[in-house]
Amino acid sequence: xxxxxxxxxxxxxxxxxxxxxxxxxxxxxxxxxxxxxxxxxxxxxxxxxxxxxxxxxxxxxxxxxxxxxxxxxxxxxxxxxxxxxxxxxxxxxxxxxxxxxxxxxxxxxxxxxxxxxxxxxxxxxxxxxxxxxxxxxxxxxxxxxxxxxxxxxxxxxxxxxxxxxxxxxxxxxxxxxxxxxxxxxxxxxxxxxxxxxxxxxxxxxxxxxxxxxxxxxxxxxxxxxxxxxxxxxxxxxxxxxxxxxxxxxxxxxxxxxxxxxxxxxxxxxxxxxxxxxxxxxxxxxxxxxxxxxxxxxxxxxxxxxxxxxxxxxxxxxxxxxxxxxxxxxxxxxxxxxxxxxxxxxxxxxxxxxxxxxxxxxxxxxxxxxxxxxxxxxxxxxxxxxxxxxxxxxxxxxxxxxxxxxxxxxxxxxxxxxxxxxxxxxxxxxxxxxxxxxxxxxxxxxxxxxxxxxxxxxxxxxxxxxxxxxxxxxxxxxxxxxxxxxxxxxxxxxxxxxxxxxxxxxxxxxxxxxxxxxxxxxxxxxxxxxxxxxxxxxxxxxxxxxxxxxxxxxxxxxxxxxxxxxxxxxxxxxxxxxxxxxxxxx
Length: 585
What we know:
Elements: H1 21-27, H2 31-59, H3 70-88, E1 96-97, H4 103-111, H5 115-135, H6 147-170, H7 182-191, H8 198-217, H9 228-243, H10 245-248, H11 254-258, H12 277-282, H13 284-309, H14 315-328, E2 338-339, H15 341-349, H16 355-372, H17 381-395, H18 398-402, H19 409-424, H20 427-449, E3 451-454, E4 477-483, H21 488-500, E5 507-514, H22 520-535, E6 539-543, H23 547-555, H24 558-562, E7 567-568, H25 571-583
Parallel strand pairs: 4-5, 5-6, 6-7
Antiparallel strand pairs: 1-2, 3-4
C-alpha cells in the first residue's frame, strides 16, 4: 500500500471533519503494513509509558487532592487521548497524550483555588473551544502565531519544568512542597541543599546521563526499539530494591510517595465535574490558554510529521479530534491532551504510517496498566525527575538564545519577554503579553514596509501605462504613490505626506496599483483627505485600485462620495481625468 496515493485532501471551510482513518477503510490495508504499524505502536507505547508516568507526577503538585494518584492520571490521559486522536485525527501518524508544555498550566490551575475539579472543567472547556476552532476552519490561523512567541514560551516551559523537578532530582522530602513563585522557589532550593538525599541524587544523575547517551549505543546492543527512559527506570528500580535504599537510605519511590496502588489495574470510573456559570467564568482564561497551547503544539507536531512522511495533514480535523479527546479525558480523570512531537517522530522512525500505529500505542499502554502496573511502585522518583529533565533539555529552543544578537531587535524582545514571563510568572501571562507584543510589532513592521512617496516625471519603475517618466504632470496636480498594504499603521504616513506638500493642490492623484489591501482606518484617512480637498475646491483621483480596496470603498459608500469618474484603471487615464478637471476651473 502506498499511503501517498490515498485520495483524501485537507478539509476546508465550515463544518468539515474527515478523519484520516476513513481513508484507510476506503483504500484497503495490507498485512505487511499492519505488522509494521503494530510494531511501531508497541515501540511508541513503551516510549510513552515513562513519559506519561512522569508527566502525571509533574503536573499535580504534592498536596493536591485527586481521585487517583498522579502517575495513574498521566497514563489514563495517554491511553484515552492517544486512542481518540489516532481514531479521529487529521494526521496519519500523530501520537497524542500529556506533554511537558501543559505542566506549568495544569500545575497553576490545580494549585490555585480551582483544585483538580477545576482542572477537569477547564479541560472540558478547552475541548469545546478546540472543536469549535476546527469546525469553523480556524486550524490554518494557528500557524500564523509568531515564531518568537512559540519559541519563547517553549524555552520558558523547559526551564520551568526543570525547576519543578529539581526537588525530586535532589531527593528533597515530598512533605515539604516548594513555593510557587519563581524567586521564592530558587531561594527555597538553595536553603534546602543540606537536606538533599545523596543516593537519590546519584540515581537521578546516572539516569540523566544514561538517557542522553543511550541513543549512541543502543544500535550496538541491538536495542533500537527500546527507549532509554524505560531502561533507566527499570535499572534504578532494581538497584533501589536490591540495595534496600527505600527503607535504609530514604530514597523516595512511586510506591512510597503515592502508595502501592499508584497505578490501578484498570481504567477509572466515569466522573462528572462540578459545573456552574461562576466557575466557567473563572476558568475561561486558563481554558483558552489550554486550548491555544494544545492547538499550537498539535499542529506543530503534525507539520513535523508531514515533513517526515511527505504528507499533508488536515489541520481542522486534527483540532476537532484534539477537542474531542479533551472532552472525553476529563470524565476519566485525565489531563489535557495534545499531539506529542517526540512520540510522533518516534512513531514515524519506527515505521508507523497509518492511524493504526496510534491505536496500538494506546492499547499497549492499556495492557501494561492491566497486567504490569504493580511494578511501577518500585521506580524511584529521582529517575522520573531525570526523564522529565531530559525532556525539558530536548524541548527548549536553546539555539535561539544563541542567535538573539542576529535577530531583529523586535523579535528578540518578544522572545526574551515571553520566555521570562513564562519562567517568572506563568504561561497564561506570557502568552497574553507575548501575543500583544507580537501584534504591536507586526503593526509597526507593516507600517514600516508601506511607503508613500511623491511621483515625479523621473520615475522609471513601472509598466508603460503606469510609468510617469517623460509624461507631463500638469501644474496644480500632485501625485503620490502608495506602496504596500495600506493599513491603520500606515494611514498616518498619508497625512504626513500631504502636510509636507505645503498646501493642497487642485488635483491630487493617489496611485494605488501597488496596494494589495487596505483596512477601515486607511479608508477613514482617505475620506478625510477627500473631504479636505473637496472643501478647498479640489479633486481626488484614485489610480489603479485593486479588487479588495475597491470593494471595501464601494461597500462603505466612498466611491459615491468621490465620484466614479474619479476612479481610473491606470496612470495615463488618471492624467487625462486631471486635465479634464483643470480645464473646467
